[in-house]
Amino acid sequence: MARKEEDVWDRFSKIYDRFIKKDQIAYSEIIERTARLLDPEDRVLEVACGTGIISLGLAERIKNIEGIDFAPEMVAIAQKKAERAGVKVRFMVQDACNLQYDPDSFDAVIIANTLHIMPEPEKALAEIKRVLKPDGRLIAPTYIHAGNIKAAIFSRLMSLSGFRAYHKWNWQSYNLFMERNAYEIVDIKIIKASFPLVFMVAKPK
What we know:
The protein is an alpha/beta fold. Helices cover 40% and strands 23% of the residues. It contains 8 helices and 8 strands, in the order H-H-H-E-H-E-H-E-E-H-E-E-H-H-E-E. It has helices at residues 3-12, 16-20, 24-37, 53-58, 72-85, 121-131, 149-160, 171-180, and strands at residues 43-47, 64-69, 90-93, 106-111, 132-139, 142-143, 183-191, 197-204. Strands 1, 2, 3, 4, 5, 6, 7 and 8 form an 8-stranded mixed β-sheet that branches. The radius of gyration is 16 Å and the shape is globular. The two termini are 26 Å apart.
């Protein structure tokens, strides 16, 4: 993503947690569903972790979890939250399309509510596939906007503030997008949120 977009998310970091609060129940469900899929000994990466809501929610159940985001202010807030909570989560600034990890490094990778706001999500998915172990899992909950009038209006308003949804999927087209990018769908559920949200689990083909 361009520096301009990083700047937008850096500014947004100060109110991000308040903004997400409207979907607190949905995020709690994402964390609970994700925790049930993971073994405590798994090595887990959250890509585009924001202020660390999901990583921190999993930290007491997973021994080795870390989060990356391309916005330095998001990472700084996440790290401060981890320190205050006394949990061990490593947060770093990294580009989702150029992950600084060796191949086959992780048992699971999480990328939540991010692929639709990436100009080139295919690059992120390719990098995730590279760092996942062959039997690893991708956990990719994502808002699905296609055909939703409320979401279309909200997306338009957000774009005026510098936030852009580059992709508007329904659950079927999101499924197809993942399959075209060399992932096999393992599970898919619809979660109730402010906008339709699909909880997807996939594995590399």
